[in-house]
User: Fold Alpha-1,4 glucan phosphorylase from Methylobacterium haplocladii.
Amino acid sequence: MTPAESERAPAATKGDSKVLNEAQAGHEPIGGADASASLSAKFAKDSAATRALAKEKLFNGDSVVELREAIRAKLVYALGKTPESARDRDWFAATALALRDRVIDACHEGTGGKVPEKRVYYLSLEFLIGRLLSDAMNNLRLVETTKLALKDLGVQLSEVEEAEPDAALGNGGLGRLAACFMESMASLSIPAIGYGIRYDHGIFRQSMEDGWQREAPETWLEEGNPWEFPRPESTYRIGFGGHVTMSANGDQIRRHWHPAETVNAVAYDIPVVGWRGKHVNQLRLWKAEADAPVELARFNGGDHVGAVAGRARAESISRVLYPSDSSAEGQELRLRQEYFFTSASLQDLVRRHLNERGDLRSLPDHAAIQLNDTHPAIAVPELMRILMEEHDFSYEDAWHITTNTLGYTNHTLLPEALETWPVDLMERLLPRHMQIIYLINWTHLEEQARQGKSDSAHVAAVSLIDESHGKRVRMGHLAFHGSRRVNGVSALHSELLKTTVFKPMHELEPDKILNKTNGITFRRWLHNANPELTALAVETVGEEVLDDPELLTGLADHADDPDFRKRYAAVRRVRKRKLAQVIVERTGISVDPSALFDVQIKRIHEYKRQLLNLIETVALYQAIKEAPHKDWTPRVKIFGGKAAPSYVQAKLIIKLANDIARTINDDADVAGRLKLVFLPNYSVSLAEAIIPAADLSEQISTAGMEASGTGNMKLALNGALTVGTLDGANIEIRDHVGADNIFIFGLDAVGVQARVGESAYAQRAIAASPRLAKALDAIGSGVFSPDERGRFGSLVDGVRYHDPYLISVDFDDYWRVQREIDAAWKRPATWWRAAILNTARMAWFSSDRSMREYAAEIWRVKVD
Assistant:
C-alpha cells in the first residue's frame, strides 16, 4: 500500500474548491465519504474563498466590481475588443493591464518620490521570469478578487492564466535565481533595478520528433507584452569595432574610442511588485535597434534587401537568447550581446547617479552593481572607460570607484562555462576595452613583481590573459580582480572556488570570497505553485507564515501527528492527480497518481547525470522482467529539460530517454510497476505543475560540479524527498532537513577529485558490477533502438572508457539507495513524516534570507 493510499484524509485546504467539487461530483473523494461531508460542511459554513476575499478587501480596498469594470475597460478601450469577441489571450492582456495599474499605484505610493540612499543594480544575461499574472495577483493580494471579477465576466481565471506566454528569458537555474532575487528585493523593499536583454525569442520551444529534440523559436512577444513600459527616452548608443586615438590634455594623455558601428539600446521596463504591494522595483530590459531602419539611398537604388541588412545585423543582438557559439560568428554575437546590455546598463545607472547625486566619486556609496556570473564581466573595463573617457577620471581614481562598486557572483566550476574570449576577437570588436584590460593586467602583474612574485608559473596563474592555448581573456579573473566581493552560491561551491578555479587569485586576496547560498522565493514556489499546501500551513501555524517563511518550521511539531500526516498526504495527492492530467494531455501517457513520482527536471547536461538515472531505469526494468511477480514499488520516472541545440551528447540522452520510455511503457510485464515520461518544453509554468506533485527529487550531479542548484530547494520545500550526491546545496539541505530525511549516495567532492586522477577506474567499476554491465550492454546493443542498433554507442563507450562524470563509480551506490527508497515508500508514516520535515526545515532556503545576506555583507544596503 502506498503512502498516498494509506493516509487519505480530509485535505484541510483553504483554497482550490475543486477538492470539494470532485467529492460532490462523485469522483474519488479525498478521505472518503466522511471527509467529503466534512468538507461540504466547512465550505457551506465559511468558504475559503470568502475569507480570502475579505482579507484582500481589508488590505487594498479593491472590490470585485471595481476590478471587473477595470478589466472590462481595458478590454474595450486598450485592446479594442468586446467581451463577445475576446479570446483568452485578450482577457489575459486586459487583466494584466488592470493589475499593472495597481502595481504602478503601489510603486508611487511606496516610494513617495524619494531618492533611495543606495540602490542595487543586478546585471544578468538571463531573467527566467515565466508568467507574471499569478505573481502580481498574489503579491497584491488580489487572487480571489480577480477570480470573482473574471467570473462575473463569464471567464475562468485558470484559462486566463494559461493564455499568458512564459517569458523564457533564461536557460535554467541562473535565470530563475535572478527572477527570485528580484522578487525578494522588492518584497524586502531593497531599491533595485535588474538589467538584462529583451530577447525577441527566449530559450527555444522544445518539441519531440520520434524522440529527438527539435527546436523552434519561442514567440513570447508575438502579441506584445502587457506588463512592460517602453522607455524610448532611455536609449543609449553602443559601439563596436573601430579604432582608438590619443590626445594630450596638459600632462595627461587621453584616449578616445571611435567605433565603426553603433547600435541603439532601447529600454523596456517591467515592474516587479513585492509582497503585499509595499514596494515595487523594475526590471529594465534592452532591445537592440539600428540607427536607421532602412538605408533609403540603397533601397531607392533597387537594393531592397541590402538596404535593411544593417538593421538585421543590429537587431540580431537581442533576437535570440544564447546563440550557438560553436562558430566564430556565434562567438562574436555572444560577445556583442554581453557588451551591449552591460554598456547600456552602466550608461543608464551612471546617468541616473549624476542626476540624483551630481558627482561620480560617490558612486560606491550609493550604488552596488552585482555581476551575475561572467556574462557581464566586461563591466570592469566598460565602467573604467566611461569614467576615464567620458568623465576625465584618472586611472587610479577610476579603478578605486570600479572596484568598490562592483560585486561578482560565480555560478560554475566547469572550465567550459567559465568564459574566456580570444584576444584577437576582443581587439577587433572592443579595441578600447582590450587596451584597458591590458593596462589593468600590467598594473596587476607589476604589483606582484613588487611583492617578489614574478616567477613564470605564478604570473601565468594570476594573469588576466591566458596564453596556454592562444591568447584569451579570462573573464572570471577579470570579474574577480575588478570586484570588491566575490561570492559562491553554496558552502561547498564557495570553498571549492578558493581551492580550484580561483586558488591563485584567492591567495592574493584571501578575504574577497564570501559564500551566499542561493534561495528561492516562497511566494512563487509555495504560495502560487501549491495553494493547497500553503493553506494547510496557514491553518496549522498561522497567517503570519505568509510574511515570514521561518514560521514554516512550526510544521515540524506536527510531523508525528498521524492525522496531520494524512491531511498532508491528501493535499499532495491533489497535486499528483493534476500532474497526471498534464502528462496525459502532453504525452498521451497515463500514469497512476498513487505511484512514486520520481522527478529529474533540469537542463540536460552530462554532469547533471540524467544518464545515470536512465541506466538505473534500464537496470530496474531488467530486474522487473526477471521477477515480474515480486512486490515492486510502482514508480513513474518523470524527466524534463532542454539540451543546448549544439550539444550532441545531451540531445542523444533525450533520445535515449524517449526510446527507453517507448519500450518499457508498452511492456505488459512491467505494467503498473514502472513508467518513464519525458515532458517536452520544460518551462517555469510546467515546473509549477511538476514540483508540487513530486515525491522524489533527483539531484545526482557529480560531486563538486553543481554550484548550488535551486530546483533541489523548490522540490524539498513542497515535500519531495531528495536523492542526491554531496554536491552544491544538497549538503546544506541535508544539514537542515536531517540526514534521516534525505537519501545520499556516491562519492563526495574529495573522492571525485581523487578518483579522476586514477586510470581505468571505469573499467574496474563495470567489471565489479554485473548489473551495470548488463544495462550498458542492453543500451549499446540496440535493445531500445532496434531501428538503429548503434545509436547509443557513443554514450555507452563514454561510460566504459572515459567516464569523466563517474557514472560507473557511483552506479552501484545509486542502485542501493534507490532500493532503500522503494522500501521507504512502503512505510507511509515514515515517508510523510520525512516529507513534512522537509517542508518545515526548508525555511532557511528563502531568497529573502539570501537577499538580506547580500545586502548586509556585499552591497552594504540597509534592509528595513
